[in-house]
Design goal:
Elements (H helix, E strand, L loop, with lengths): L1 H29 L12 H4 L10 H20 L6 H22 L4 H7 L3 H29 L16 H35 L5 E9 L4 E3 L2 E8 L2 E7 L4 H4 L7 E10 L5 H5 L2 E14 L4 H17 L4 H12 L7 H9 L10 H15 L4 H18 L4 H18 L6 H15 L7 H15 L1 H8 L3 H24 L6 H36 L3 H32 L3 H27 L1
Helix pairs in contact: 1-6, 3-4, 3-6, 7-16, 10-20, 11-20, 12-21, 13-14, 13-15, 14-15, 15-16, 15-17, 16-17, 17-19, 18-19, 18-22, 19-20, 20-21
Length: 598
């Protein structure tokens, strides 16, 4: 009799301990679940722990197992069931458990003895089930947060009580609309002020010093350049004997000009983008001086080194190489410009954001493993230097500012996506200079980047994720994005540009990555050899051999442009091909969004 009493006492003590452990875990994970209408968590967690009458281990395990299954069903059915249905289900589960208890109460002590040995493993299984349910609810909330869907009161997606995410989405849209309205207002106000000031440019005789703000360009019978005088910009063309005085000048140089200032009869888009509303009719140009600013001296030296090294190549190849490296198109022959424009490859011979991306790719291994602040400083210095070397071309400025924004956000521990960085960059630059809307390079750069950000994922889902497929997806996305603007400005964009760029862009990228450091190293070797006065022949042979590495791919790009120009289809076929390309791209993007939503 005493042995039976001791056994009954142990049975009463063990279920109480397991009940306390299970209730402790249930309430611990209930803190992580979303609140219900009454401020508590899910009903399974809100139910207060009870101290039931002592029962055998099999009965208690059955009740707790059913209670855990009921909580799991309530957590998983929140997508299509209301809270009242869940409560009815929980009440039914409790009634069912009560009925089982009444039936199992008729068991004898011998029945309890049969199930006593496996009670502890079943209790551990219950604890693991509670933990799994809590983790699953947390995962559902995170998935709902990333998808932007509502979270129900039971921690599931799509419940009728989960309006928190919906409210957050509405506030985000409203905030975006307000920000966009503010940006448009600031651009409009500043643009109006700049437009009025542009038409107030002084005219009349000029006899003074002007500063070159853009590298001279060869035109028929002379040299064209943009100069600044007393904070106003003018366009002038130098012909005759004075042409020799400015042909070798660089940005930042100062000229002594005698002539007449006249307002332009009509303003072209390029004039507006350059803030030019008048011209100088030159009678005499004298007194070319070098700029005093260190940054201009550094940029001029870099351009001089690149010109000296590339001049060893044939004239057309040298001009094409300078255009690929730093966007210097001042001495491009007309047949080269026409061929690349007809093939839809004109962006390769003009510096763009792609050059900045490749420069950063070249610098990235050198700063890997450094602190974030150190990487940010190095990137800012590198992109700023490259921007000045390219004469602050709008496309390069856009890419440089965007890179600094992304890297600055990463330094601060913020994840700033490419799309947000592009919108922020375009907004800031347009507020500073509203006339960038008339800059062909800036608009095409923004459009191409938008295509890379928002169209490439959909095309990758169709074409695949291999190396060739990634290049093709990015190239096609950029071409589709810039096609409307290219048609507006240039009047045509052949569909042959898509396969031509798929082939030419990787080659041009390799030239940009290898060519710029190679040309600078060759220039340094030639400079040292000339100053020391020894080994000039060996240095010259080394430079010629090194240039051969980039000469072949430069000539290959030229051949691709000529072949694309010859194979370009007629106008009718071209229009139909572009329509088909846009439909395929649209289907790919919509299909990707549908898969993400599912």
């Amino acid at each position: 009799m005493s042995e039976h009493a001791e056994r009954q006492r142990r049975d009463e003590q063990r279920p109480a301990d397991t009940d306390r452990d299970a209730d402790h875990e249930r309430h611990e994970f209930a803190d992580e679940l979303p609140p219900a209408d009454d401020g508590t968590t899910t009903r399974a967690a809100r139910r207060p722990p009870t101290d039931p009458e002592p029962q055998c281990g099999a009965e208690r395990d059955t009740d707790e197992y059913r209670e855990g299954r009921g909580g799991q069903r309530r957590a998983g059915d929140g997508d299509d069931r209301s809270g009242d249905d869940d409560e009815d289900e929980s009440e039914g589960a409790e009634q069912g458990a009560g009925g089982d208890n009444e039936q199992n109460a008729e068991h004898t002590d011998s029945g309890c003895t049969d199930h006593r040995d496996d009670r502890a493993p079943r209790t551990d299984h219950l604890s693991r089930r509670i933990q799994t349910d809590a983790v699953a609810a947390t995962i559902r909330r995170e998935v709902a947060r990333r998808r932007g869907g509502p979270i129900s009161g039971h921690g599931t997606i799509g419940g009728h009580r989960g309006h928190r995410r919906h409210g957050t989405g509405v506030r985000r849209v409203a905030r975006s609309i307000v920000v966009a309205a503010v940006v448009v207002l600031l651009v409009a106000v500043h643009g109006s002020v700049q437009w009025v000031r542009l038409h107030e440019v002084p005219t009349g005789p000029i006899d003074g010093v002007v500063r070159i703000v853009d590298d001279p360009r060869a035109v028929r019978g002379g040299v064209a350049l943009v100069v600044a005088h007393e904070s106003w910009r003018y366009r002038m063309v130098v012909r005759g004997a004075a042409r020799g005085a400015v042909v070798s000048s660089r940005t930042g140089d100062h000229l002594y000009v005698v002539g007449e200032r006249r307002a332009l009869r009509s303003l072209r888009g390029r004039d507006i983008a350059d803030h030019v509303a008048a011209e100088i009719v030159v009678r005499d140009v004298t007194g070319v001086t070098r700029p005093a600013a260190p940054v201009y001296r550094m940029v001029s030296q870099v351009h001089g080194v690149i010109d000296d090294v590339t001049s060893r190549l044939p004239a057309t190849d040298a001009a094409l190489l300078r255009g690929l490296l730093i966007g210097d198109d001042g001495d491009h022959p007309e047949h080269l410009v026409d061929a690349f424009r007809a093939a839809g490859m004109g962006h390769l011979v003009a510096v763009s954001g792609q050059n900045v991306a490749l420069v950063l790719a070249w610098v990235a291994p050198l700063i890997a493993g450094r602190r974030r602040s150190v990487r940010l400083v190095v990137i800012v210095l590198v992109v700023a230097t490259f921007a000045f070397v390219t004469r602050l071309e709008p496309s390069v400025v856009r890419a440089a500012v965007m890179a600094i924004i992304v890297r600055g956000a990463a330094t601060l521990g913020r994840d700033f996506g490419a799309g947000r960085a592009l919108l922020a960059t375009a907004s800031v630059l347009l507020i500073i200079d509203p006339f960038l809307l008339r800059s062909v390079g800036f608009v095409l750069s923004v459009a191409a980047t938008a295509g890379l950000v928002w169209l490439t994922p959909g095309l990758s889902a169709v074409l695949g994720t291999g190396p060739v497929a990634r290049v093709a997806s990015a190239t096609i996305a950029a071409q589709l994005a810039v096609a409307p603007f290219a048609l507006w400005w240039f009047g045509s964009l052949p569909i042959i540009a898509v396969p031509a760029n798929v082939i030419a862009v990787p080659i041009a990228s390799a030239i940009m990555v290898i060519g710029l450091p190679l040309v600078l190293v060759c220039g340094a070797i030639l400079g040292v050899a000339q100053r020391v006065g020894i080994a000039e022949v060996a240095a010259s042979l080394f430079v010629d051999a090194a240039l051969f590495v980039v000469h072949i791919p430069v000539r290959a790009i030229w051949w691709i442009a000529v072949a694309a120009d010859k194979l370009a289809p007629g106008a009718g076929v071209n229009v139909v091909a572009w329509i088909v390309a846009y439909l395929v791209c649209l289907a790919a993007v919509l299909g990707r969004r549908t898969r993400v939503a599912e």
